[in-house]
Amino acid sequence: MALDAEKMNSSLKEYEEFFEPVAGALTAFSQAHTLLIEKYRHDAPVWSLCFRHPAGGHAKIDVSRANDEVEAQGVWWIDNYDLFTRNLKWGEKNKVERSADALAAVLATQLKDVLSWKVDQWNQTATGYENSWKPFTKAAFYAMGPHWPIPIP
Prior knowledge:
By secondary structure, the protein is α+β, with helices and mostly antiparallel strands. It has one domain. It is 39% helix and 29% strand. It is built from four helices and seven strands. It has helices at residues 2-32, 100-116, 130-133, 138-144; strands at 36-39, 46-52, 58-66, 69-80, 85-90, 94-96, 124-126. Strands 1, 2, 3, 4, 5, 6 and 7 form a seven-stranded antiparallel β-sheet that branches.
């Protein structure tokens, strides 16, 4: 158990050092647009800027480690409890140098793009959620969803 904690602390330190040159830009952008920052979910080198999509569902812009650069990609999804599916729209991946200015420009473009997407422009429908969603009523399922902010464009 101590070994797992030590490994996790080592990874966290490595991730923090990697993202340090762009952390200020990520934080400033999220504050300016009322986005919620989620860092290193599932121990992955990713900062997610999370929000509710104005057309429904949830969205985020993931900023991931890509060797010595960062890569940003928007995604939007709406869950359909009745069909046990998740409809997703994935944006283009934009790889840029690990600098605040380069990343800030990409984030602005990504947010504008994600907010412009319309329902039924999905490029993926994920299935197989029946076993994990069915123990909950429809109302309880939707109430459990993330309570992310609505972004300021």
